[in-house]
């Protein structure tokens, strides 16, 4: 099995993309997110931005090893909006992303098939206009040690080119480091085998 420690996501929020179908307007938005708590404030902001819209349908996916996702049809017929949007998240193989399609009704009903197609197309062109980037899956560790051991810790950090997130240097010290997943076990074992050094995953 190939070891995978990268994932694709979007670099930043994309500007609105407009798709029209039989006078209905579909505004597509993509947002990079890290947690589910970010979703509601974004939807609330879009409701203020498009007060005349009837539906604010969305799908999101978060995570790399463990995937969390959710779809919302927001009053459209079941599975006619959220799932087609989520299908595009899967098709582009991105994660940590929220896709929202805001629909302003144009007076002509599209039918379920028409809705599925319109939401899918809106989601697709939204992701096509987003900058998709590859990121590494990183593991965070905290190393705890007495100040007298600082030199040997710092030597490893320098040798292995380890990124320090934060450090607290007092009599007892703590350094938070971030390691790319494929190197994490090796780095953990180096510190774990040192005398008087504690390392734990965050």
Characterization of this structure:
The protein is an alpha+beta fold and 202 residues long. 30% of the residues lie in helices and 37% in strands. It has 5 helices and 11 strands, in the order E-E-E-H-E-E-H-E-H-E-E-H-E-E-H-E. Strands 2-3-6-4-5 form a 5-stranded antiparallel beta sheet, with helices on both faces. Strand 2 and strand 3 form a beta hairpin. Helix 2 packs parallel to helix 3 (111-128). The longest helix has 18 residues, at 111-128. 31% of the residues are buried.
Would you report the number of β strands?
11
User: What string gives the helices and strands in order?
Assistant: EEEHEEHEHEEHEEHE
What characterizes the major β-sheet?
5 strands, antiparallel
The residue ranges in which pLDDT falls below 50 over 5 or more consecutive positions are none
Radius of gyration: 23 Å
Write the layout of secondary structure elements.
Layout: E1 6-10, E2 17-21, E3 24-32, H1 39-49, E4 55-62, E5 68-72, H2 82-91, E6 97-104, H3 111-128, E7 132-136, E8 138-146, H4 150-159, E9 163-168, E10 172-180, H5 181-192, E11 197-201
Antiparallel strand pairs: 1-7, 2-3, 3-6, 4-5, 4-6, 8-10, 8-11, 9-10
Structure, briefly:
With about 200 residues, this protein is an alpha+beta fold.
Task: List its traits.
single chain, 202 residues, alpha+beta, four-stranded antiparallel sheet, 5 helices, 11 strands
């Amino acid at each position: 099995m190939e070891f995978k420690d990268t994932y694709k996501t979007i670099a930043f929020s994309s500007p609105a993309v407009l798709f029209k179908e039989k006078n209905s307007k579909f505004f597509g938005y993509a947002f990079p997110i890290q947690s589910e708590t970010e979703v509601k404030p974004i939807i609330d902001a879009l409701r203020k931005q498009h007060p005349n819209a009837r539906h604010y349908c969305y799908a999101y996916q978060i995570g790399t090893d463990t995937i969390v996702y959710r779809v919302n049809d927001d009053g459209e017929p079941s599975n006619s909006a959220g799932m087609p949007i989520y299908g595009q998240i899967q098709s582009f193989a991105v994660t940590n992303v929220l896709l929202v399609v805001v629909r302003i009704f144009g007076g002509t009903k599209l039918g379920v098939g028409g809705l599925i197609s319109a939401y899918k197309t809106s989601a697709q062109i939204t992701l096509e206009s987003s900058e998709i980037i590859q990121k590494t899956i990183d593991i965070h560790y905290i190393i705890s040690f007495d100040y007298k051991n600082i030199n040997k810790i710092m030597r490893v950090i320098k040798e292995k080119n380890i990124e320090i997130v934060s450090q607290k240097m007092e009599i007892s010290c703590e350094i938070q480091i971030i390691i790319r997943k494929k190197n994490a076990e090796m780095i953990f074992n180096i510190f774990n085998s040192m005398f008087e050094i504690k390392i734990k995953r965050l």
